[in-house]
Amino acid sequence: METECPECAGTVSIAAPEKGEIVECPECGVELEVVSVSPPALALAPEEEEDWGE
Amino acid sequence: MQLAERGIVEIEDEYRIPLYHKRDIALVRGEGPYLWDAEGTRYLDMMSNYGVAILGHAHPAVTAAIVAQAGRLVSCHQSFYNDARAAFTQALQQLLPSSLRHISFGNSGAEAVEAALKYARAATGRPRLISAKRAYHGRTYGALSVTGEAKHRASFAPLLDGCEQIPLGDLEAARVALVDAAAMIVEPVQGESGVRVASDDYLQGLRRICDKTGALLIFDEIQTAFRTGQTFAFEHSGTVPDIMTLAKPLANGLPIGVTVVSPEVADRIPPGSHGSTFGGNPLVCAAGIATLSVVGEPNFNPHVSKVGAVLLERLRAIEHPLIREVRGRGLMVAVELKRNASPVLQRMQAADVLAIPAGSTSVRFLPPLIVEETHVIQAAEAFEDALRAVGEKEGNG
After folding, report:
1. Which one of B35, B172, B337, B383 has the fewest CB atoms closer than 10 angstroms to its CB?
2. CA B345, CA B353: separation in Å to the nearest integer?
3. What H or E segment, with its residue span, contains residue B297?
4. Are residues B37 and B99 in the same domain?
């Protein structure tokens, strides 16, 4: 699946997409959720409450 | 001081600025690869406090060194000479390549990066600083300016002028970006973004480009030092940087940052242009000497390689539709999922195993480097159980 990042309009390619999958835009780095496989559509991934990163 | 878990949580929650999303346990004690919460539950530590407690908790030699130095001299400004600082410097020199000899002290990885960026500009007279997309170098303004993740940067603009991110692994982008740049800063293995290993060819290529353009090559080894099966991760590629940043593991958990530079760079840093009141204090240096004496033992790196290989093998053997990729080098390992990693981490914690995220979709394993095969096998099994439980709940496997 190849579609457009809703944040920066960059191209995002996903080999075998699944609805609900989280991917990262290679251009701007935002996290995106696959909200539809056919037709292909991405949305900004929801912020998780448990962000335990550095 | 003995506070019950509920009291600890209430006090911290009432007064803290809510910068951290908290996990619902209060850790109060550690020994070796284990941590205990205030209610007495024992956890297997697979995160070493984000990579710092490499010898495990309450290591006897480190504890003895801290106690002895605390009774002797805790602070000593760097305008004075000091025996503990000199001994730490000497111990570090035993581990460094011959072309990286000169060091300055700070108190954290971010400070080590700040110093590295300042030295690069001072040494080259050029303003532009290049880093890799997805990089994580710290949260102070300079370090943040070369950090790739938008979520860390968004609230604090404008950041430092002259900073540009290029894709990790893209040498053509590096050739373009490094013309007239002061430096390229890169993690040999990106940590926070999900344990992404820069290829040997890429690091060697960066070295060649920097040599050609006059840009300095900075390796951020804050998380990778001692952890990948070589003393420094750059040794896998045989590529030596001009500047290196060190911090997390150097004193087994006490705050320290060290910036290491070549003699050519050191010669071009003006005296008095940088400093730190707490940097290089004798207490931290004493802990550092004890830590480095263990790291320098002949079997240390082979042990990390061997146990790390077992962890990687066990994780790669797990077949599950939510796994996108397993990556790692030595005891720096991550499993990238197709979903947010938090539910898996929560279930691992409920099974008394503590791991951490890398980005939002990776489960990261950064255990103390003294763990044995039995520990990493237990961790891999806890991960698999947690993943299967989460998968079943979501209808995936």
Report:
1. B172
2. 9
3. none
4. no
Residue B64: inside a domain, yes or no? no
Q: Which domain holds residue A36?
A: 2-44
Nearest to A22 among B20, B338, B346 (CB): B338
Contact B360 A29 (CB under 8 A): no
Q: B340 and A49: CB-CB below 8 Å?
A: no
Note the pLDDT tens digit of each residue in B129-138. Answer: 999 999 999 9
Residue B2 confidence (pLDDT) above 80: no
Q: Would you say residue A30 lies in a domain? A: yes
Residue B396 has pLDDT above 90, yes or no: no
Q: What tokens does B312 get?
A: 């990687």
Q: Using the predicted structure, report yes or no on whether residue B1 has a pLDDT greater than 70.
A: no
Q: How far is CA B219 from the centre of its chain?
A: 12
Q: Do B286 and B159 reside in the same domain of the chain?
A: yes
In sequence order, the β-bridge partners of residue B36 are B29, B42
* Residue numbers of the domain that contains B377: 5-58+299-394
Q: Is the pTM of this model over 0.90?
A: yes
User: How many domains in chain B?
Assistant: 2
The domain that contains B178 carries what CATH number? 3.40.640.10
With 70 as the cut, is the pLDDT of residue A48 above it? no
Q: Specify the residue for token string 């995160």.
A: B47
Q: Could you give the number of structural domains in chain A?
A: 1
For residue A21, give the chain B residue with the closest CA: B338
Distance of CA A20 to the CA centre of its chain: 9
